[in-house]
Amino acid sequence: MGGAAVAVIARQRLDVGIVRALASEKRLLILDWLRDPTAHFPKQKDGDLVRDGVCSVFIADKLKVTQPTAGEHLHILSRAGLIRGKKIKQWVFYRRDEKRIAEAKRRLRGDW
After folding, report:
1. Is 104 exposed, middle or buried (0-12, 13-18, 19+ CB in 10 A)?
2. What does the pLDDT read at residue 40?
3. For residue 94, which of 16, 33, 57, 87 sits 20 to 30 Å off, Cα-Cα?
4. Gap between the Cα atoms of 97 and 80, Å rounded
5. At a CB cut-off of 8 Å and minimum separation 6, what does 1 contact?
6. Closest by CA position to 59, among listed 19, 29, 100, 24
7. Pairing mode, if any, of strands 54-55 and 83-88?
8. Which DSSP symbol is given to 2?
C-alpha cells in the first residue's frame, strides 16, 4: 500500500473518531462547557480551570452521571484529539485543544 493510500486511510479513521466524539449530546455539552470553564464550573482546590482544565469529577457531577460514564465520554473526546487531559495529584483535568478543534472543523467541512 502506497503512502498516499495510508494517508487517506489515516484521515478516514480520524474523521470517524471525530464524528463519533461529536455524535453525543453529552460530549457536545462537555466541549461547550470547556470553552468557558469559569462560567460553568466552581473554583477548584487543585488546578486552574483555564490553564490546567476542569477536574473530571466536576464534569461528571455537571453531567449528572457516574465518574466511569463521564470517563468514557472524556476518553472518546481525548482519542479524537478534541480535549487534553492533565494529571494533577490523583485527578485528571481536561481542557479543549483549540488547534485540534479548528482542524477538525476544517476536515468536517471538507477543507483538506
Report:
1. buried
2. 97
3. 16
4. 10
5. none
6. 29
7. unpaired
8. -
The yes or no reply on domain 3-109 and CATH 1.10.10.10 is yes
Beta strands in 69-110 (DSSP E): 83-88, 91-96
**DSSP sequence for 15-31:** HHHHHHHHT-HHHHHHH
Residue 45 burial (10 A CB sphere; 0-12, 13-18, 19+): exposed
Bridge partner residues of 84 (DSSP): 95
Cα–Cα distance list, 8 to 1, 4, 88 (Å): 11, 6, 37
Least confident of 15-24, 40-49, 84-93: 15-24
Helix (H, G, I), strand (E, B) or coil at 49: coil
Q: What is the pLDDT of residues 44-83, one digit of tens each?
A: 999 999 999 999 999 999 999 999 999 999 999 999 999 9
